């Protein structure tokens, strides 16, 4: 995946991680693993994460990030949704706002609600 697109998707992951106002090292690690899964090394993943954090802090809308995912394959979208749920569940709680945010993101990237629910259940077990 091209670096600019990955940066936007990573910014979405960062946004979801920051939603509960507790952006933890565990969440950063999940995000770095996501970046590395696209064949970037640790140094590159650190740089992409840093650039994505800046991008996220400078943006006010989800659309800037979700537009990078919308035309991707279901496989890529599934990987993104899986990582979003890993981030949300990493603190052992899922609040209503986080669930609502995932539903909104799924709508913006044309991802099936049922599949998102199945992914959530998989990670809650």
How would you describe what is shown here?
There is one protein chain. This protein has helices spanning 3-18, 25-36, 42-58, 63-66, 74-89, 96-109, 113-124. The model has no long low-confidence stretch (mean pLDDT 93). It has a single domain (3-124), classed as Orthogonal Bundle (TerB-like), CATH 1.10.3680.10. It is mainly alpha-helical and 125 residues long. It has seven helices and no strands. Helix 1 packs antiparallel against helix 2 (25-36) and helix 5 packs antiparallel against helix 6. The protein is 73% helix and 0% strand. The radius of gyration is 13 Å and the shape is globular.
Describe what is shown at a glance:
This protein is mostly helical.
Count of the separate structural domains: 1
Show unreliable segments.
none
Spatial extent as radius of gyration: 13 Å
Question: Which superfamily, in CATH terms, is the homologous superfamily?
Answer: TerB-like
Oligomer: single chain
General shape: globular
Give the SSE layout:
Blueprint: H1 3-18, H2 25-36, H3 42-58, H4 63-66, H5 74-89, H6 96-109, H7 113-124
Helix pairs in contact: 1-2, 1-3, 1-5, 2-3, 2-5, 5-6, 5-7
Keyword list:
TerB-like; globular; 125 residues; 0% strand
């Amino acid at each position: 995946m091209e670096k600019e697109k990955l940066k936007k998707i990573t910014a979405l992951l960062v946004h979801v991680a920051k939603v509960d106002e507790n952006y933890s090292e565990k969440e950063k690690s999940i995000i770095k693993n996501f970046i590395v899964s696209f064949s970037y090394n640790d140094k590159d993943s650190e740089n992409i994460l840093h650039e994505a954090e800046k991008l996220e802090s400078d943006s006010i809308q989800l659309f800037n990030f979700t537009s990078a995912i919308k035309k991707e394959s279901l496989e890529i979208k599934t990987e993104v949704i899986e990582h979003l749920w890993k981030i949300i569940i990493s603190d052992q709680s899922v609040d209503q706002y986080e669930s609502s945010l995932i539903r909104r993101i799924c709508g913006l990237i044309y991802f099936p609600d049922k599949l998102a629910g199945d992914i959530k259940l998989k990670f809650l077990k």
